[in-house]
Amino acid sequence: MNSHEKMEASESGSCPYTELWRAVIAFALADVVSQSNGPEELVEKRVAAAWARRGGEDFRTVCDLAGLEWSLVQKEFFKRMGRNGR
Fold it and tell me: What pTM was computed for the model?
């Protein structure tokens, strides 16, 4: 982390990279709960849901880089998927 990144992290309270990985999780959650039913959107929903459901190494790594406990993130995905019948 260079000095500019350190300054940004200290001013905002979190590292820009942490925010980036949190955005990855947020976009995956948005895909899961999306009400869009186009072919591309349905594929995105399925991929995001499977990614969270498996809870594999890549899911856990993204959660770790986001500064979040993977099991809690996974529970949130399950909760949201349950609401949408997935």
Answer: 0.78
**Structure-block tokens of residue 42:** 């349905």
The maximal CA–CA distance of the chain, rounded, in angstroms, is: 47
- Asked whether residue 66 is assigned to any structural domain, the reply reads yes
pLDDT grade for 16, boundaries at 50, 70 and 90: very high
With respect to residue 1, please indicate whether it lies within any of the assigned structural domains.
no
* Residue 2 domain flag: no
The count of domains in the chain is: 1
Q: How distant is the alpha carbon of residue 9 from its chain centre?
A: 20
